[in-house]
Amino acid sequence: xxxxxxxxxxxxxxxxxxxxxxxxxxxxxxxxxxxxxxxxxxxxxxxxxxxxxxxxxxxxxxxxxxxxxxxxxxxxxxxxxxxxxxxxxxxxxxxxxxxxxxxxxxxxxxxxxxxxxxxxxxxxxxxxxxxxxxxxxxxxxxxxxxxxxxxxxxxxxxxxxxxxxxxxx
Length: 169
Known about the structure:
Layout: E1 2-5, H1 11-27, H2 40-48, E2 52-56, E3 62-69, E4 80-81, E5 92-99, H3 108-122, E6 127-132, H4 137-145, E7 149-155, E8 161-168
């Protein structure tokens, strides 16, 4: 397995994984990602900012994707609750994580989290924040197992409610 920055050549694979993830969420009656987000323009922006990552299997196929940054997340400025680390402190953020159908439940999401934890450790950044839909119990279970703490509720740019979590290293 290899994790690397995404390139524009990866966009078809990334968008196929995202489309599959949207269908997977819809099948579970979860409204997350059902309003046109994430879209190609968002992924292109992530790639331009060097914030898009892909995970390749041993056959060099793109099997997972995520956005990771240490730039402040504007939607995290207002939280119904309390972050563990002050918003003025540098922190990492994960968005748009998706695993290709047929590769779920194999630990790939954990591998992505581990990579991002390592990157933060190398930069001496001690906090990683993530949010998810209140009905996305799979992601909530994963991030809780990884030691993330529930911090409160935030709202996306689209006004959608999300549960916010943070892990301090």
